[in-house]
Amino acid sequence: MMNLNVQQQQTVKLHLTQGLTQAINMLQYTSAELNSRIDELSLENPLIERKDPDIPRSFYHKTNQHLQREYPLPAGTTHEDLKSALKRQALDLHLSDREKRIFSYLAESIDSNGYVTEKLSFIASALSVPSEEVETVLAKLQTLEPAGIGARSLKECILIQLRRLPKQTADAEKVMSSYFELFANKAWKELSAAAGLSLLELQDIQDLITGLTPRPGLLYDAGERDVYIEPDLIIFIQDGKLMLELSSRSFPDIQLNAFYEPFLERRANDDASAFISDKYRQWKWLDNALKQRRETMSRVMGEIMVRQKDYFLKGKNEIQPLTLKEIADALGIHESTVSRAVKGKFVQTPYELCELKRFFSAKVKDASDGHTSSHAVKAHLRRLIEEENKMKPLSDQKLADLLNEKHGVVISRRTVAKYRDQLNILPSSIRKRYE
Any idea where the RNA polymerase sigma factor 54 DNA-binding domain is (predicted)? Predict the structure, then answer.
């Protein structure tokens, strides 16, 4: 027989209100996301008003190597896309109406890298024209800028660019036309024997081809793909001390719309008063959330400044090992709060513009049983490779030995290979030079 007993049990559960959840999310918002959210709320709530008027933005331009200061583009500035540029240049080709139709189709079929990806036979069938005519128009398209545009393969793209160069490129064209696979696989000795060229000549060809553009279509779209970043925080040195400044766009302030203040003093029990009271509570919550976000970000950045003081005063190679938990423990907050605070945020330092997450790195054991940061190890690794004998480049094992010998860093050959890959540095067999 089943016994049914009623028991009372006390449990503790964390219940996040909608407001608290939104406040947590607000901490991890980027500058653009935060301002967009405030705009949305201000459209719904007439009591919400921005305290600071719009000010001109200072942008920072992110390039492949670094981040540098740029200025706003003039109003009305536009970027010509690749397809429009090709059609504009085609005016000088004096194409017939039939050729214009083929050209237009080809231009529209070019991908963002600048390649024609559809088979010419398919294009000919789609336009009901002979394949030879498509081939002829494509050859004319390939004479346009940027060099290499309209190629059907990397091999053809490189050959088009080589033939445009003012210097003699017969050997390079020979290698690309007849021995492309060997060249791509960097099988230098086999290629040398097959092409009848010395290793030194192949090295010159490699240098020449390295300077070409494998994806010419990106040259026209570069303006649209540039990334402009406004730092959330700015750190500078004043009288030998580190100073922190917060961007007004990343940390906006709001104020109560003065027009509605008299309505808040009313004690009427009507729909209008209820509406104003509800919107006031939302305004109050947003104001508190923004202040909390500002305070948390300031505290997190302040602790990072303390932990990474040598970097801010001496240079980027001085970054110390640091974890999110260490910052969280020092501030008495949860690790996830620190994670949200640094996510997607940028800081302008005396040396560079970088993401806050850059200041957090794994600890690498050194010879004295202490620890150094992976950032510092990578800096040592890059310097060793920059200073190596290019005719006898250092192997990953030799690099591991030198890191231990010169810097007291104890890491394996496999870890060296991993860091080298992260730095986009090629293996020693490919770095080797012949002069």
Answer: 274-433
User: What are residue 246's DSSP bridge partners?
Assistant: 233
HSE toward the beta carbon, residue 67, CA cutoff 13 A: 18
Q: Are 173 and 159 within 8 A, CB to CB?
A: yes
Q: Domain range for residue 421?
A: 363-431
Residue 50 amino acid letter:
R
Q: Residue 425: what are its φ and ψ, rounded to 5°?
A: -105, 130
Contacting residues for 72 by C-beta, under 8 A, at least 6 apart? 56, 57, 58, 59
Residues 261 and 165 in one domain: no
Tell me what pLDDT residue 314 has.
83
Return the pLDDT at 160.
Answer: 95
Q: What is the rounded CA–CA span in Å between residue 206 and residue 204? A: 5
Q: What is the pTM of this model?
A: 0.55
Please check whether residues 190 and 89 belong to one and the same domain.
yes
Residues 141 and 104: their CA atoms lie apart, in Å, by: 10
Domain final position from 163, 191, 220: 220
Q: Is the dihedral of CA 215, 219, 225, 227 positive or negative?
A: positive
Note the pLDDT of residue 233.
Answer: 94
Q: Is position 330 within any domain?
A: yes
Domain-embedded: residue 414: yes
Same domain, 188 and 149: yes
Confidence at residue 149, expressed as pLDDT on a 0 to 100 scale: 94
Secondary structure (3-state) at 275? helix
Write the single-letter amino acid at 21. T
> Which pLDDT belongs to residue 84?
84
CB 224 within 8 A of CB 81: yes
- Strands ordered across the beta sheet of 241-246: 241-246, 233-238, 346-348, 353-355
Q: For residue 43, what are the CA distances in angstroms to 36, 37, 75, 85, 409?
A: 11, 10, 26, 40, 56
Where do runs of H (alpha helix) occur along 53-96? Answer: 82-89
Report d(CA 17, CA 191) in Å as an integer. 68
Q: What is the pLDDT of residue 31?
A: 87
- Cβ atoms 373, 364 nearer than 8 A: yes
Q: Is the peptide bond before 146 cis (omega within 30 degrees of 0)?
A: yes
Q: How far apart are CA 331 and CA 301, in angstroms?
A: 11
Residues of the chain with pLDDT under 50: 11-16, 53-78, 222-226
Is there a domain that residue 73 lies in?
Answer: no
> Letter for the amino acid at 205?
I
pLDDT at 101: 92
